[in-house]
Amino acid sequence: MMSTDVGAQGRFRGQAWQEGMHRQGRVLRRRIPRASLGLGLILAGVLGSGCGSRTPVAQGPKNIVLISLDTLRADHLGAYGDQRGLTPTLDSLASEGLVFERTIAPAPTTLASHTSMLTGTYPQTHGVVRNGFPVHPDNQLLAETLAEVGFHTAAFLGSFALDSRFGLDQGFHRYDQAFDSLVTDNRDQNQRSAEAVTQAVLRHLDDLGETPERTFLFVHYFDAHLPYEPPTKWAQRFSSDPEVLELGSSAVEAIVQAKHRDWHGIEPNSPRFGNGRAIANGLEPRVILEAKQQAIPEEQLPASLYAAEVAAVDEAIADLLRGLEERGYLQDSLVIVSGDHGETFWEHGDLWNHGLWVYQTTLHVPWIMRWTGAPWTAGTRIAANTSTVDLVPTLLELLELPAPERLDGVSALPWLQEPERERGPLFAVATQPYHPEVERRDERWRNARKPHAVLWGDWKYIRSRYNDIEELYHLASDPGERTNWLRAAEGQTPPGVTAEELRATHERLSQAFGDYQAQARPLPSEYDPSQARETAQRLQAIGYGEGSD
Questions:
Q1: Domain holding 445: CATH number?
Q2: DSSP output for 481-524
Q3: Mind listing the pLDDT tens digit for each residue in 22-47?
Q4: If you ran DSSP here, which 8-state letter would residue 349 be given?
Q5: Quick one: 153 and 54 in the same domain?
Q6: Between the CA atoms of 300, 306, 307 and 311, what dihedral angle is there, to the nearest 10 degrees?
Q7: What is the pTM of this model?
Q8: Would you say residue 80 lies in a domain?
Q9: CATH number, domain containing residue 95
């Protein structure tokens, strides 16, 4: 049997869910941890009768290092067009490996998107509505699949959003969540720096003693998320104000409130004024439809400190790769870099937010893979649309392992041989607002009324039922999503597109959206309020919250 240590150690399927539901006063049928079953018994049905009860043997790379960049926009990497030299380490990986140019996240918040990344399924399949909704044990996580075929599995987290109480630890032998930066009035969750995450990875490998035959490391960097607190050397290099080297969420909220008031005429007593209220109650249609897509001078500071955070993450990854090399872990390793979502600055109405809408600023994420034994040449770039739900099936094909039964993604490897291969629609869903009239229980899926995106070829369709907004963008000619062709003047069309083609595209993507929603079969999950309670208690303890002045 595999070790299933408690505390910061990972727990296997069923155990975490059962404990979480007991906390909520619910008892579910107990599942036998998969790790305690014979491997042949587990996989016999997958492999078919011709294989008997043999356990599959993973081929391909000996070690897998999956690096997740939380809240990091793809357009801040040099490999994706940035010219400031923020990410030399990631750019080097890209030049030596494989780059997917047009990858989107299925959801623009941490837990839902990471669950998609590690299961290969959309949120309306795995059931995680947003942060705080535990991962159901019937989900097959990548760590479980790899542990079952002999990988030592270890995760190292930068944010409480992925805390083990929410079930993403299924299949991990080690689940390291020793957060050192705790909640304050400007920090809404416990976290730790990229430097500390890297140190935790290398310390764990040193503590193992004997090197495992095969290893899967999941490394989560959270620094690009608010608050912006980059190391001093990076803040001094990139900050637009040499007197300000860090910035909290309250300062950014003041910017959002000013633009809501001055640009859109929303009064402070409105239930949708500022990000705090919009996240709870939703966005006013005018904020989305009348966005000026312009920065005010005050927005240069958070943007520059965000860039400094990106540079700090890149440096921590350089230290990680150097440490892995020194310990012999990169000799036959597949390094994967991806992200859970980005961040909108001033480009659209979802100002300084991720979660409220589904523009490319929050959906477009990097996906880079490097392996010396790979079936691609260094510097290969794939221009086809992809999603992070494709990561699991792509990796399993490289390892020559059977795919789980529940899978929405597809392997991206065929695009190496057929770059022009047709790809059907890809989907993403916003996870905010939280309002009960939006997250209605009479819907099949609690996110059904929130903004959805459909990407198909060069087109992107957005539909938000709760505030009745519909948008259509031609990304090939308008990557910044500035022209909504459903609101264009009569007779105007994108370059090279006829009016009839525009109408047909709208109908096709609208139909795809309806078909997708009709297929929603989410595994059950109920909100675990413990994170919110602990945050409130800590804020009260340091002088904020009810009764404070």
A1: 3.30.1120
A2: ----TTSSPTT---TT--HHHHHHHHHHHHHHHHHHHHT--PPP
A3: 333 322 222 323 333 333 323 333 33
A4: S
A5: yes
A6: 160
A7: 0.89
A8: yes
A9: 3.40.720.10
